[in-house]
Amino acid sequence: MSDADTLRRFHFEDGRVRGLIVRIERSLAEVLGQHHYPDAVARLLGEALAATVLMGATLKFSGTLGLQAKSSGPVALLFAESSETFRIRGYARVQPGAAGVELDTLLQGGTLAITITPAQGERYQGIVPLDAAALAPCLEHYFAQSEQLPTVLRLACDGQRAAGLLLQALPLAPGADAAGAKARWEHLGALAATTRAAELLDDPFETLLFHLFHEEAVRLHEPAPVAFGCSCSRERASATLRSIGEQETRAVFREQGLVRIHCELCQQEYLFDGPAVDRLFETRAEDGGTFH
Ligand SMILES: [Zn+2]
After folding, report:
1. What is the structure's pLDDT at 291?
2. Which of 162, 198, 223, 201 is CA-nearest to residue 27?
3. Ligand 1: centre distance to CA 232 (Å)
4. Which residues of the chain carry a pLDDT beneath 70?
5. Torsion on CA atoms 112, 115, 116, 121, rounded to nearest 10
6. Any alpha helices (H) in 89-233, and if so which ranges?
7. What per-residue confidence (pLDDT) applies to 289?
8. How far is the CA of 266 from the centre of ligand 1 (A)?
């Protein structure tokens, strides 16, 4: 069975450490789509997407997890997101001249925001500096800072496939043997840190986990599918135009004869002709009134 476009959870029989492994291929091709990103940018976006699936799967509630990196380097903006059902989408805004740049300098000096939007409840955002030469160590820093859970994250992308492995120590039960748990974590974390990019991208998950942890009893759970998907809609496009405002929207309409909202994430176009523009702002006039 191919492990492409799947996420699998695993745990160690003693229950103190959990793991997640993901590989995306067709879904990555759909995200990269018609963008023609330079190779290094495509690899960075692939790693970010794999990371969002892994990090989203660690949430204790249903919700969406997004990564947004901003930088004055060759990649001005990088966005990757995974929904609670592992629908992924992403986008990069690339400056001219990014083509010859390597992965470690793409986001130099930028910041990375991790946004968690629960299905119910308040949005949470954590921000970490992009001060390492790769995405994975910056995200490990986030886990150490925000969740205080020791985490090892390995990411890889060759432009066609992206993959990731996350290993995380679980919180200790009261009265547990903390020194024993720490030693155990250090052993397993050190093994996980030896994962090579080629193994992560090529090997069947079972083979990879056996290779890494062959002296351990690892239980691999059923795979969950990962697919490309965008949550944009005509309603959201309408809300965007309302937030831009009537004056500006009508000015665009007068100039172009049509108002066009283009989704960078899935290439969908939402078109608003004259009557549609009128309806947008009629609805606004009714806001707060009685809805008929
Ligand atoms: Zn879209």
Report:
1. 41
2. 162
3. 4
4. 1, 100, 103, 283-292
5. 150
6. 135-142, 178-192, 197-202, 205-212
7. 42
8. 4
